[in-house]
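FORM 7B: Structural annotation worksheet

SECTION A. Query
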Amino acid sequence: MLLRWRAIKGKNCQKRMLILVLAVLMSLSDSACRADNSMTISTPSKIPNEISTERANSMKINIKVGDKVVTATLIDSKTTGDFVSLLPLTLTMNDLFGREKFAHLPRAISQEGERTKTYEVGDVIYWSPGPDVAIYYRHDGQEIPDPGIIVLSKIDAGIEAFNTPDSVEVTIELVPSP
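SECTION B. Predicted structure
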C-alpha cells in the first residue's frame, strides 16, 4: 500500500497534533516510573563527590607565624590539591595594601579552582599571575583585579597573627590525619 503525506491544515488538525504529542509525552513519563510511583533511578548511600568534598573540607593546614600556630580548613579543588603537593613550605610573606600578607610560590599551581573577585578576612588564596599565595587579615572593601583569586583555605581562628605592617616568616604544613 502506498501512503501519501499531506500538509496538515486547519485548527482541528493542529488540535489533534497537540493532543497526540501530549499523549506521547504522558506515555513516556509514565513508563519512567514503576507501578509503585517511585523512580527507577538508584542512588548510592554516599555519592563519591560528596565523600571527597567531606574529606577535603576536613583536611587542615597549620600556618606557623613566630610562636603562634594558626589552623585553616582546606577548600576542595584541584588548585588546593596542587598547593598541598608543595607542602611543607617556609615563606617570607610581605605586607600588601595593609590587608594581606603574600609570598611567591616556588612554582605555578593548577588554576582549575573557582575564581572570585571578592574575599573574606581569613581567606588563604592563590593569585596565579604571581604565582603567589596570600592571606587576608583585613578587608578594605576593594575588589580583586583580573584574573581574580582562587580560595585555597579559610583560617579557623587567630588571623590577628598576620595584622602587622612587617614581613613575617611562615611555615605552612599539612595537619596529619588522625
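SECTION C. Observations
Helices lie at 11-31, 48-58, 78-84. Residues 51 and 57 are 10 Å apart (CA to CA).

SECTION D. Sign-off
Analyst initials: ____
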